[in-house]
Amino acid sequence: MFAALTDAEWTAIWLSLRISLVATFLAVPFALLFAFLLARGRFPGRAVLDGLVHLPLVMPPVVTGYLLLLAFGRKGPIGGFLESAFGIVLAFRWTGAALAAAVMGMPLMVRAMRLSLEAVDRRLESAAETLGAGRLMVLASITLPLMLPGILAGLVLCFARALGEFGATITFVGNIPGETQTIPTAIYTDIQIPGGDEAALRLTAIAVLIAFAALLLSEMLARRVSRRMLG
Amino acid sequence: MALSVAVTKKLERGFALSAEFTSSGRLTALFGRSGAGKTTLVNLIAGLLRPDSGRIAIDDLVLFDKAAGIDLPASRRRIGYVFQEDRLFPHMSVRSNLLYGRHLTPVDRQWGSLDQVVDLLGIGHLLKRRPAALSGGEKQRVAIGRALLASPRLLLMDEPLASLDQQRKEEILPYIERLRDEMQLPIVYVSHAIEEIARIADTIVVLGKGNVVAVGPVGEILARADLRPYTGQAEASAVLTARVAAQDERAGITTLDHPAGRLTVAHVPVPVEAVVRFRIRARDVALAVGYPGLISIRNRLAGTITAIHDIEPPGVEVHLDVGGEHLVAAITRDATHALELTVGQPVTALVKSAALDRFSFAAEPSPQARQPA
Prior knowledge:
- The complex is a heterodimer of chains A (231) and B (373).
- In chain A, helix 2 (46-58) packs across helix 5, helix 3 (61-72) packs across helix 5 and helix 6 runs antiparallel to helix 7 (135-164).
- Chain A has one domain: Orthogonal Bundle (MetI-like fold), CATH 1.10.3720.10.
- Chain A is mainly α and 231 residues long.
- Chain A has helices at 7-40, 46-58, 61-72, 77-86, 94-118, 122-130, 135-164, 167-172, 183-192, 197-230.
- Chain B has 373 residues and is an alpha+beta fold.
- Chain B is 21% helix and 35% strand.
- In chain B, the strands form four sheets. Chain B has a six-stranded mixed beta sheet, sandwiched between helices. A five-stranded antiparallel beta sheet of chain B has the order 2-1-4-5-6, covered by helices on one side. Chain B has a five-stranded antiparallel beta sheet with strand order 14-13-12-15-21.
- In chain B, helix 3 (114-121) packs antiparallel against helix 4 and helix 4 (136-149) runs parallel beside helix 5.
- The longest helix of chain B is centred in the middle third of the chain and has 16 residues, at 166-181.
- The A-B interface holds A 121, 123-124, 126-134, 137, 141-142, 145-146, 148, 228-231 and B 46-48, 73-81, 83, 85, 87, 89-91, 93, 100-101, 104-105, 129-133, 146-147, 150.
């Protein structure tokens, strides 16, 4: 079956994987920050931040994509600044697709991380403090390791969401083969043309495979983590 | 070591703590009913809570001083803390748990070694396990070891035995005595269990509702009638110390020498010449004027009446000085009248051997304190 894949299809697959991976790792530091702010922060406007973080989850993806285009497009305030200051262009580039996927996947990642952070027993952190651990040491040796199952779950959810991202991507960066065409947008193109069903099916099978592999991998990691806890 | 504390702290539930005491005891017990603020007070000493005002110092080292703007973070106080629950790190092996604080302690401040601590606590066979695979008593011993290996200058223990059954308590108490005597580590021990405190403490700080109501040597505090509402004791008791004069294991008898007389008790497994302490409840003490004739009670201590307090009718408490120590007898008012007891009068205190249970015996804190380096 793989031999039957065309070059264009391979390109879409690799691009999809690359965009999803970049999006996932791009989202991690922000998701961690938001998770800590939402789980532990005591500041006015926490509810507003909570809402903003979750907005991409409930808004139509096209709306998110259009807002991204307005802000990060070459004439948008942020996009214009990035281009004039660093020469970075996001609109209609694969980097923009990664940004769109990150924004769409972030709420799921924040949720998973926040839940696991809230489950961390803070009394363990104070125990570490009495043993001489400063704040960063407590974070690195106690909090983050105890959050690990949630962090892993967040990574997988975000990756899967990024892989399936369609609406925001096509609105923000279009559907340009070799640049921004991912598996979902390629399937969309295939089913628009007569006789494209077979190509669409091939990509669909690949998409199922990748999703399944990601799920298995995360399950394996989660099991290893929980075994480590129970000794 | 002298620990001096004078702090106030308001908590959310409307509870206010205002506590002031100093102790140079080897093992200072913070004693009081639940809700008296014991845990809050140790959290303030550890640096896990910040006082609203006041000062906390160990000898010349100021840990907190509101007026001077000093507030050493918990991580830099080098105060060990054994919590009510074990609080072991679930994602690390026992060995990693033990060494956690050690890696964070400057080498020139370290004392003791992993082998030494593992030996002391008898946890060598547990090193490779995860905390989840340990029993309650084992977890608590590992928690003590973890605190020790951070080389603390003071060890706080917040009801470390509360979650354990009697058998486990008996298993761990000797280890705490060894810390006090062999490692010479100053300990602040929180408890509401009078038996534990009578056994291991030398100084008691009694907490009422958020304030210190008394500080003093264990024998003196436990005997005081006016502290009864705070200590939660239904009755007075006394703590005496005596030297083991002879052991007769065949007969199952240990003979103790006390300055006020000789005591025969059921066998206690300690060497001859060792100094032990034990608690005697006031209701187990009877009084006689002059020398009693033929009776089965053979433990007789010569004493002088120092005070007579009325308690719930028909009882009175008669306080005695027996060879420099404090003993309390609970008898009826009728009996005091019949014997015409008055303050200053010499009497003989009679104690039934059976009243001295094994659990109430413990090694006396050895007198010369050596500071850990």
